[in-house]
Each structure stands twice: as C-alpha cells, then as structure tokens.
C-alpha cells in the first residue's frame, strides 16, 4: 500500500495513497477530529495536507431539538447591537444554564442572511487549552495546516469575508482572548458573537448579559419562565394546564428557580414522578433534585450541580472562599455588607466581588447611586454547601448577624426621625429596610438556632417600632418562633409580643392583637420596664379602640405620660393622634385640633415624617368637616407625598381615602369613587385592615356608595378597583386634583376609536412612568418612533403633557 508519512507534533501519521483509506486515517487522528489531544497549529513540521473542508463552506448551525420559548426581545436586541457599525465583538454573558448558547444560535439563524460570508459556529467546550481555540476555528473554516501563525492564516482567510463567527463556551479558554483581538484587527469585515460566563476584557468588546426568563408581571401575567416550564412539563405530563390551582404552583416553582432555563427544564422533567406541590416543596434541596437531563446533552447540562461545578472550577481559591461566604446573604446585599461579613485576613472583597460579577456567579443591579448584589438561589445553595465544607459556617453566620443588628439599629433611628433626616433620606432608609428584610429574617433565624438571647432582644427592640408600617404580616409565623428561643419572662419576649401585636392589628385581627398586647404589658409590667410598658399600652389601645374606647383612652394616657418626659416623639405623636381620634368620635373637634397640633410639633423636633403624616391625615378630616377644603387639600397631598415616598401603607390608603372625601366636597362624585375604590384595593393587596383610616372619611362617601348601582358611579368603582394606586398617587402629586370629565357616550370608549392598538400600548406604558427610551426597549422599536407615537397620543387625547395622558389612561382603564 503506497502513501507518505507526515509529522504532526509528537505523533506521526501514515497517509495512504488510496482516497478512501486516506479519509479514514485523517478522521482517526485527533488533530483533525478535534478534542483535547489536538496539537497547536504551528506544530506541523513539514508538508501540508489537503483540507478536509473547502474554505468557501461552513458547518450548518446546530438545530436544537426543542423550541425556543421567549427571548424575542433578547434576539431583537442582539440583532440591533450587531447592526451598529462600531460593534465587531459581542459577548453574551450569564450564569450556567441561563440559555446563552440557545440565544446565540437563534440570533445567528436570524442574522445569517445579513452576512454574505456566512455564519460559522465553533463549540469550544470540548477544548482543554486556550492554544486550541484558533486551530479549532481554522479547522471549522476548512483551512490547510501550516507552520505559519494560525491567527495570521485565519485572518487572511477572513480578510475579504463578511462572516459571523460564533464561539460557544469561551469561559475556560480566556487566555485565548488576545488572539481574538488580533484576529479582528486582521479580519475587519467579520463579526464575533461569543458566549461566555465571563467577558473577554478586550478593547472594543460589547457585553450583553443574558437574563433569566421573565416571571409573571402585570404586563405579562404568564411570563416566559412559566411558558417554558409548561411546554417542557407537557412532554412528561400532557394534560398539564394553567388552571387556578396548578398555575400558582407552577409560578412558585419558576420563581423559586429564578427563571433559569436549565433549572426549569430539569424541574419539568420531574413532574413525571412528582406532583407540582411536592416539586415546589422539594426545591429547598434543588441541587440534589434537579438531575437527569437528556443523555445527548453535555454532561455539565445534565444536572444543575454540574452546571455550577463548571463555573466553580474556574475560580481561584480566594474567589471560592468569597463565593461560599456570600451564600449567607438572602435576597441580596450591598458592598458594605459583603465587606463586613466576608472579609478575611487577606481577602480583597471589592476585587473578588467584581470578579464574581464578571464570571456571572453574582448578579449586580444598580439602584440609584448604589449597586445591590445577589446570588441566584441555585448558586446560593451551592455556595452554602461550600461554606459548610470549609468549616466557616458558624463564623460567617455570626458576622452576618452582628452586621444586621447594627444596621437595623441605625435604620430605626433614621426612620423615627433622629438626626433630622429629610424625606429623601428617610425614604432611603425605608427602602433599605424593605430590601434587607430577608437578611433580617436570616439573622433572626441564626439567633434562634443559637438561642442568642441578647441578639434576639436587640432585634426585637429595634424591629418593634417599625412593625406597624414596614413588616410583612405573612412573616408573623416566623417571628413567633423567636418566642420559643427566649425565656418567657424576659424583655426579649416582651418585645416579640409587641411585634406580634402590631402585625395582628395591621391585619385586622383585633382579638389576636389584644391578646398579644396583653402579654406584652404583662411581661414589661413584671420587669418594671417603663419603655416596654409604654409601647405595650400604646398597641393595646390601638387594638381595643373599636370595642373599649374608655380602656383605650386610659392606656393612651399612661403611654403618653412616659413618652413626654423621655422625648419619645414616635410614641408621643401616635398617642396624641389616637387621642384626637377619640375626641373626634365624641364630636370635640377643637380638642382634636389642639392634640394634633401638639403631635405635629413633636414630629418636627426630630423630623418624624411618618408620625407627622398620621397627624396630618386626621387633621385633614377636621378641616374637611369645618368646610376648609383648601386646608384639607394641602394636608392630604402632603400625606400622599409622604406615603408614596416611604411606601407606608396606612398613609397611602388613608391619603387616597381622604382625597376621595375631598372630591365629594368639591362635587366630583365619579372621581371620588375612583379614589375610594383604589384605596380599598391597595389595602386588600397589602393585607392591611383600612377600618381605622377610612373611618375618618367614610361618612363623606356613604351617600355615594349607596348609589353605586348607577351606571356612571358603578363604572367609576370598577375603574378605581382596577387602577394602579401608585400611578394614581403620582398623578395627584404631579398634577393636583383631577378634573371631573363628562361621562363618555354609552357604548363608545373614546380611546378605543381614536387610538391605534400600538398607540394604546404606548399610552399604557407611558402611564406606568416609563420614558420614551424605556418604552422603545419594551416594544423593541426605535426611540424616534416612540417619540412620534407619544406625540400622536397626546394630540389625539387633546392633552399637552404626560401627566394628563396618565390621568386619562387611569380614568379609562387603559393603564
């Protein structure tokens, strides 16, 4: 048999003369077959081989076996970015399992007609070394081997071609990035689309972070994550539907998995053996649960753990320690918190955090001037496993508890008005408290597990005064567990009874609130703790006010007797405001006015915006009764302003209810009912009992509500129930009280006949406060196009600003 010998690296290859035998010999050699054993291009010692692939052809794009769900917006954005003349390298980044490869393939399929030189897809996952990347590209192009520099050879081949080169899974061969920079300089007509868990850090690189699939939201009640889960689950359970019961379970599963496509697909496969309820409950151990992916997928995609293992293996030792420690945070964290909790003797938290963000293991989200970070729940569970294995679990949890005890103390001072914070500063503290609520619960859980009585008492002391406005009532069951970790007669137990009393009161469970408050008073009375007793008497008065006004008055007087000399403006102002409520119920408006003015003066001493808002809300009802509509309006708009800024439910509900009463006094019945219905809908959505705040203004609305069957008023009630209360408050603050509009002609909705479907969509987004750029991004169109559409909407509606258009949308149910 004739032939010749060539030397490829350290291996020789005999090439037969017979064409069929030659093809088999070439295919068997790892240099041509690819994989880990492929030598560098420059290792060819002499001679060249005929190319196994013509340079004018390229492999077809892989065809995924399942349909792509969602990603329309992302595909459109990738297409748009690659259409910019300045973009020659776009890197799709994101955590493992987020769907970077699927997005890249779909984008390449859509973009193929725009690249005369074709589309070339090169998978890099099988490679082990960075120096194998350019030879793999060369092989895919069908180039002949050469002793010359492979980058130059590929660059020359692509110099005259407008080609889209897709490099998939680049994260483990990052050292090859400079070669890509050189290639782009040589082949300026070509474009690179790269998928990687980490950006390449090349000059001129554009990054596109691939987000998880969208979860249900108002403008998309189903959500792409649910659509993907349902589509894949039906392969195992064909009869699965989104009925009321199963739909909620599916949404819970998708939220628990952060909308991560790989996790959703693995979970969907489990419905063959698990019910949806059992699947949701087992997500606490998702890394063990979500296995068994398709056998024809890469091994790293067959289990959720393997997907994260792939990323974890690429970290250095310091990054691994930092990621493990970050697992203690729940719901996100700040750089300050990470520095306080995760710093070791030699750790650079800022640098390490930046690297983990770059590697897509930590998500960063800008919020105003600051950035908040979080781990996807799948990554967080993996990090906690590593923390346990490293033996640092107790120390890091203790540091987490210490930090949030101190942070809670500072937040309480700001929210109560100490240090004279302005409304914006207070709003920032309230927003931080709400953002850190999951971390506070985690700190509380650790204090319970370790039975740290001092920490539990401290958490309760600073959490208790905030319970009325800022804690989720559904957390009561978790908070009640703190009682079992402290002595029944301790101050810590007294404060936890106080918290539980306030939560019960907020939810309208007055009997339960009275019982918890009684235990609070009993504990603090036995201890001789005057501060705790004053707080307990205050909340007991709130809970007993509807059934025992005299008893409530006595409790308020005792609480106020402590607050005044001790300078506690929070308790003092609230007691005075509640005493004013009692005076009003007895028809003593002048007495009530005097008490409220004293309450307002107390709140001004320390800039207590919440206490002032409560006093002004009650004072507005006094002014309204006295016929002072102008004074009532000024007070109510300030209540709405404070409630909206601080996201305080009672002030928001009361402010909208008060505006409704004011509109009645001004002869605007339909507008009044819209605001009243919106007030009630907001209370229901927040699980808040509005009886107290709405009782201030209910007499004004009663006559109208009795006529609620009339067509115009019935329509107003329906519009109010469907309205966005936040948008309604924003309109009040931007444009003042709404003018009453004549009822539309029966059977004819003006907007339906004057606006096109796209203009109605633009109006809906505009009424949500989105800018023209944000609307364009949501609709996947150009900013100039949206600008023209907004102008057309304003013209057709006969208004000259966005606030008026928002008001129109709210009034006609178009928001």
UniProtKB/TrEMBL annotation:
**A Pfam family matched by this chain, by name?**
GerE
User: What superkingdom heads the lineage?
Assistant: Bacteria
Q: Which GO terms describe its molecular function?
A: ATP hydrolysis activity; DNA binding
Q: Do you know which InterPro entries this protein is assigned to?
A: AAA_22 (IPR049945), HTH_77 (IPR058852), P-loop_NTPase (IPR027417), Sig_transdc_resp-reg_C-effctor (IPR016032), Tscrpt_reg_LuxR_C (IPR000792), WH-like_DNA-bd_sf (IPR036388)
Sorted alphabetically, which PROSITE patterns does this protein's record hold? HTH_LUXR_2
Domain HTH luxR-type: start-end pairs: 748-813
Query: What are the BP-aspect GO terms?
Result: regulation of DNA-templated transcription
This protein is called Serine/threonine-protein kinase transcriptional regulatory protein PknK_3
